[in-house]
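Request: How about a record?
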Amino acid sequence: MSKIDDYAAKRSQRDPAFARSAEQYNINLDVAVKVRDLRDSLNMSQREFASLVHKPQSTIARIENGSMNTSTKLLGEIAQAAHCKISIEFLPIT
């Protein structure tokens, strides 16, 4: 475990608000990677991808850098535009 992971684990035990924020950040990063992978698989720039999904390029940038809490509605619009479907899973915490 890295020092930052150790710090986050210890602080999360003491601070429920920090734990919620850290979990949301991890979810945002998972979404960021998936959206970026989808865009890359289509060989599109952010601008081209944004045009495909009828959103501003800045929205795609915010999703891909993990700073946006992306709604399931927006993920559905992205999937539909890219001719994909979404799969959501709940996994046990390890």
